[in-house]
Amino acid sequence: MTTPAHPQAEVFFDGDCPLCVREIQMIRAMDRKGRIQFTDIAAADFRASDYGKTQEEFMARIQGRGAQGEWLEGVEVFRRLYTAVGLGPLVMLTRLPGLSQLLDVGYVWFAKNRLRLTGRCDSEDLCQPPETS
């Protein structure tokens, strides 16, 4: 896989999460101009410390970086990805008052329950990603 010379966005995704991988595959297929850099945090050679973060931070919620290197997380990552593949009008709708807050709350719930929802934990303790501020 090639890395875009100047990506509009970079997404750090959990390649062991079936739901996450489906979303990334869809976005990758739409990224015909190679504007997004995809980084799998479940890959054997991924080192969170190379990015000044912990693996727990990457696992707690989706992380991304914008074109200027600024860190993003949660719904804002998806907004940047969809904008990069030409879905700007859809992204504008996600910024509407009410809908924006609903999406943020929904994503936080998903992120906290992702391991359980995808069948990737053996006990309640293992299902809880670490809290981040």
The low-pLDDT segments are none
- Evaluate the radius of gyration: 15 Å
Kindly report the spatial arrangement of strands forming the biggest sheet. 2-1-3-4
Taken as a percent bin, the fraction of beta residues is 5-15%
Structural domain count: 1
Reported for the largest beta sheet, the result is: 4 strands, mixed
Question: Which bin fits the share of residues in helices?
Answer: 40-55%
Structural class from helices and strands? Answer: alpha+beta
Principal-axis shape equals globular
Q: How is this structure best summarized?
A:
With 133 residues, the chain is α+β, with helices and mostly antiparallel strands. The chain has helices spanning 18-30, 55-60, 75-84, 88-94, 99-117, and strands at residues 9-13, 36-40, 63-66, 71-73.
